[in-house]
Structures are given as structure tokens and as C-alpha cells.
Amino acid sequence: MMSKDVSFIKGIYVNREYSWIKFNDRVLAQATDLGNPLLERCKFLSIFHSNFDEFFMVRVGSLQSDAKLDPDAAENKTGLTAREQIDGIFDCAKNSYRTADAVYAKLKSELSRNGLKIKTGAELTDKQRKQCKAYFEAQILPLLSPMVLDAKHPMIRFENMNCYMMFELTKSDRLMYGVMAISPKLPRVYRIGGGKKTSIITVEELIRTFGATVFDGYKVSSQAMLRLTRNADFDATLDDADIERDFDFSKFLKRKVELRGTQDAVRLQIDDGADGIRAFVLKALNIKKSCCFGVKHCFDYKFMMSLGNYLPPEHLPALKYKQTKPLRPPVPEGASVLDAALRRDIFLAYPFHSMDTLVRLLDECAEDSRVASIKITIYRLDDRSRIVDALKKASENGKEVTVVIELCARFDEENNLYFSEVLKDAGCTIIYGMGNYKVHSKIISIVLADGDGIRYVTHLGTGNYNEQTSRQYTDLNVITSDEAIGRDAVAFFRNIAIANTDHKYEKLLIAPKTLKSGLISYIERETEKAESGMPASITAKMNSLTDKTIIDRLIAAGKAGVKIRLVVRGICCLLPQVAGKTDNITVVGIVGRFLEHSRIYRFGDGKDRVVFISSADLMTRNTDKRVEIATPLLDRAIADRVCNMLEVMLADNVKARRLTSDGEYVAPDAVGEPVNSQELFLQGKFSI
Q1: Is pLDDT of 152 > 90?
Q2: What is the per-residue pLDDT for 411?
Q3: What is the structure's pLDDT at 243?
């Protein structure tokens, strides 16, 4: 909880960055959980490192910008300045990395016992060393660009997240430094032939082992690989685009993305040892020593996601999660999804159900003569998107297709720029969001015009229209023909097109205007019930909870006697179970096989029960700075099913961890049968 003189917890509030680091530590813990198969544990280690890479680029980058802009400004929960948060983050992160190094060593040993050896250069046999050197000279060396730094060869620019090899050189008693970039086009792993067990070596390790041979005629006294992380957070405002890019936001954003790799450094990772090289790089790049992280093993752990490619197929079943098939689709194959949706609401829970049902709906709409228009919001897409194919087909068939595509979806900007052009070329109307608000909503509005007049089918969900992540993230969806929601959906897209945030919707809660106030009104309703001596409850699930206004309303509700149960996957800035303050609030977080991503907000238990699913977390960025949607579940059976899912998650005693009053996450008491919520949902058991 403490890092030097930085306290990340103040009373009943937790600093968001510290809470995120605790979440990532829970991800790392899955890499040591023997209940997970070996290759899955390797993937969790890779995810841990990937999470931290993005965290430094975005969150630490943002804090670094804040520290420059207003060094004395303090965040509103723990009163820490941006610089104090950065200093604390570095200390916490270094502790996490030390733990991760030990985890990697254990996984490497266990992989070896299962027939896969990950070699270092020092571990190569003479025969293997000869083979690896030949591969290095033939396949790696041509893609390296070595250079000796001097007056005519000044320091190169280190690209964001790219690896470089530095060498301390002497020639004629003169000290110099050599550097070479490691091309990202190089394969990550080389498979070494021979032996009973499969042996592999990373390209990083090959370059560490043989890179010095490039500097013929020089004496190499030390060497170190390094990687620089740069601030990847940037603002792209509508006003700037209007002025600089002739009112074309896409052109403006392209330039912003190009500049991402040149922003200030936030982290330097460098091989342990080689103190001279470290000092030279820190001085040359003007980086503080506190921003430097020693690397013991690897810089890029993505190769651990594909280790199964190097093992015999017959070994894989015991080393991976058991493959499962999606549950039976709610609309049988061959039946019309559109017609089914016109009769009754359809519920989909990913990844337990397949996204095929939604794709089938769009494919049908592209061909159905009753369908006049299709409008959709897009935030992140699969590289080979069937959603895009269906929209193109609909447009080419004469349907009115409008696509609101968010170009500022971080790290998906280039992908979304590409698809915006593809869809535009197919005749779709393209809208790049609304004003300076990110459009994070997940909604499809389908309008039918036939002899029965205007009818609506609307899809609302908690996750992206991305086929790949629908198999990895838990998300909830409803397809409804409710007229009021249909009218709201049409009005939503109309208001996006004219940049109007003030519309009053019938049933949908829409950020930035009514989602936050709408949810608060239900919190207050439950508070008033409790104050009147009536049973009152709030049960909610989200990825993150940081909005202080909502946190304070929840605290007040809990003090009034409302029973509050929260399932928060990641950041939680509310500290539960603090005596006299948050006694009535419990928080659990689940990290498991799938990434928990659904957002559910349930108020009350009886006849006045209201259940929403939403694209929005309870973060200020979502409630105040984005266009988000929360939809009520009008079908009682669907609402019951979602409430049952909440109860299963709250009963999870395998993958869930309970947040305690001191800010730590602990395993719940193992009472009764093991309850792994995700595994039960895979089996189609949505209640216990």
C-alpha cells in the first residue's frame, strides 16, 4: 500500500493507478495458478507484460503530461500530484517486475519438463551454437543496421517500443558506442534442430549472443539490449482538425498517430549490468534514473502466446484449456434472426454464445426488402471483419447504411481509418464520432418499412463488434423490437449526425447527458427506500469504478442501509468494508480464462427491479467525456437470466478475489463446492 512516501490509499478512496497495478498483479497470479494449464499460464505472463507496456504508454504518459502542465494539481481522491503518482508507480512496477521474473523462471523450468526448452546463449551446446550462428548470419544480420556513434554518426532516434542493442567499444584506446536497431520484421523465435526435446531461442537472445561479431575490428567491452517506451497519449480535438486539416478529422488524426512514436520517453528498459551503457543512454536521452528498469530475461513476451506451435499436437490437450463449442444459438440455424427479433427479444452472452447470430442478422438485413436503413457505431473491429462485409453488401444492395466509426479508439486508429475508407468506398455514410466526445456506444439501429408501417430492430451490447474479441471477452447483448427503444436508437444516430447531446430519450440512458444522472437517480431511489426502512439493494458489474460523484453516492447509499455488491474487474477507487463508512459495500474482482468485460447495473430486487446493460464503466471518462449507452432489459426472462449471472459471479470462489478494507485482494473462503463462474457459463449454467 505504501511506496516510499507515497500513500495510494486515503480513507475510503484508492488511487486509480495503484488499483490498476493490483489488477495486473492478479493477472500475473494466474500465471502461477496450477489450476490453469501450463500454456495458459504462459499466456497470462505475456498479458501481464503487454498490460504494463500499454499502462506506461498511456497512463504514465498522461501523468507525465499533467506534471508538466500543472505540477501542483492533485487528483480528487487521494490528493496525490501527477509526479507523486509517477514516483509511486515506478516503485510498485519494479516490485511487480521482480515477481514476474521469478514466474518466468518457473514457467521456463516447467516447459522444459514438458519437452520445450527456451534456451539462452549460454545454454547452447557447441552444436546448437554453430547452428544458431549460421542462422544469425544468414537470416538476422542482413536486417540489422549497426552504427558506431561519433560526430558524423550522431545518436539515432529510438522508436517507441522497439529493441536496440548497444555496445561499449574501444579502438586504438578510444572509447566509443555502437548501436543497432532490431527490426520488428524479424521472427520472434528460432527453432533449433536436433535433440529429444524441442529447443527454441528468441531473436533477442540470438542478437545478445552474436551481435558483437558485427563490429569487426573493435574490442567489445560490454553490451546491453534496451527498449524505450514513449508517451502514446495525445489529444485530437475537433477545433484543431477544423483549422489544420480542412475540416477532415481523418487527415488530422493520421498525422497525430505518426507523431506518437516521437513523444517524450516515460520508461527505459535495459539489460541488467552494463552500468556504463546505462549511464550513457540515460544522459544522452535525458531520462531520470528512476525511470530505468533492469531486464533479467525478455523484453517482449508475446512469443509465449504461441509456444504451443513448438510442441507435438498430442501434448497440447493437457497443456491448454479444454476446447469448447459455443452454446446453441438462441435462433436455430436456418431460421430468420430478423423475424425472431420482431417476435421477441434475443439475448446473447459472449463468448458462451457465438457472434454468428448477430452477423446472420446483418447478412439478412442486407438482403431483406423490408429493411430501409442500418446504422451502427464502431469502436474496434476484427482485422477480417464479417460485420464490415455485411455492411458493404447492404450498401451495395441499396440500403441506407450509416457508420459512426470512432477514429480515436486508442491503438486502433489506423485500423479504423482503413475501414472507414473501405466502407466509404462501398457507399456507406461515414461519421467520425461527435465533437470532442469519443463514441464508445455499441448500438445497431435497423429500420424496416413495409405494409405494416415503420418497425424497428435494435441491437445493444456491452462490447465491440469484433468477432475475435467476442471469443475472448465476456459481453452481454440484447436484440429488441421494442418501439420506444427503436425510436431512441433512430434519434441517437440523428443526434450524432448533428452533434446534439441535449435530446431527451424515452428509455435509453445516454452519456454525456443522462447516463450518469439516470444511474444516480436509481441509487437515490434505493437510498430513499433504505431510509424508509424498506429492503434496498444495488448490484453492479463493471470493469472500473473511478467516478467520484458516483462513488460518493454509493457510499451514502451504503450508510443509509442499502446492500451494495459490486463486481469490478480492474480499477476500483472505492474501499469497501471500512468500519462505519462502507460496511454495507462488498467488492469482488474476477480474473479468469476470459476477460470480464460486461457492464450490468441492477437496482432493487422486487417488482421495482430495474436492470441495465451498458457500454460504460463508472469512470469519469465514460460518464462525462464519451457517448455511451445504458439500456434497460425489458424482457423479464432476460433480466432474470442476467441477475442469475450476477449471483453466480458473486458466488465464485475459484477465480474471484475479494477487495479488503486495506486495499488488498484475497481469495474468498472456500465453502462448499468450487464455483468457477466462467466455466459454469461455458456449460450453459447461468444460475446456481
Answers
A1: no
A2: 75
A3: 45
What is the C-alpha separation between 610 and 639, in angstroms, rounded? 8
Residue identified by cell 485482494 is 665
Contact 458, 482 (CB under 8 A): yes
**What's the whole-model pTM score?**
0.93
Quick one: CA torsion of 667, 671, 672, 675, rounded to 10 degrees? -20
Grid cell listed for 324: 469448447
pLDDT level of residue 212 (50, 70, 90 thresholds): very high
Q: What is the mean pLDDT of residues 39-59?
A: 96
Q: How confident is the model at residue 4 (pLDDT cuts 50, 70, 90)?
A: very low
Strand partners, 658: 588, 666
For CA atoms 38, 44, 47, 48, the dihedral sign is: negative
pLDDT, one tens digit per residue, over 233-250 is: 765 555 544 444 455 656
Quick: pLDDT tens for 337-350.
999 999 999 999 99
Neighbours of 688 (CB within 10 A): 12
Three-point CA angle 439, 445, 449, nearest 5°: 155
d(CA 392, CA 370): 18
User: What is the secondary structure of 147-216 as a DSSP string?
Assistant: EEEBTTBPPPPPPTT-EEEEEEEEETTEEEEEEEE--TTS-SEEEEP-SSSEEEEEHHHHHHHHGGGGST
Mean pLDDT of 218-226: 94
Residue 433 grid coordinates? 464520432
Angle, nearest 10°, between helix axes 61-69 and 82-113?
170
Residue 19: C-alpha distances to residues 237, 321, 592, 653 (Å): 29, 29, 18, 21
* pLDDT band at 2; cut points 50, 70, 90: very low
Number of neighbouring beta carbons within 10 Å of residue 291? 20
Residue whose entry in the numeric block shows the C-alpha cell 495503484:
18
Which DSSP string do the residues of 634-674 spell out, in sequence order?
-SHHHHHHHHHHHHHHHH--SSEEEEPTTS-EEPPP--SS-
d(C-alpha 212, C-alpha 115), whole Å = 31
597 catalytic per annotation: no
Q: Strand 665-666 and strand 656-659: pairing?
A: antiparallel
Considering the candidates 49, 440, 459, 597, report the single residue annotated as catalytic.
440
Distance of CA 273 to the CA centre of its chain: 33
Cis, peptide link before residue 351, omega less than 30° from 0: yes
Amino acid at 532: S
Chain-wide mean pLDDT for the chain?
92
**C-beta separation of 516 from 547 below 8 A:** yes
The amino acid sitting at 144 is L
Sign of CA dihedral 559, 538, 554, 676: positive
Amino acid at 505: Y
Question: pLDDT class for 582, splitting at 50, 70, 90?
Answer: very high
Task: Look at residue 578 and give its three-state secondary structure.
Answer: coil
Q: How many CB atoms lie within 10 A of CB 36?
A: 19
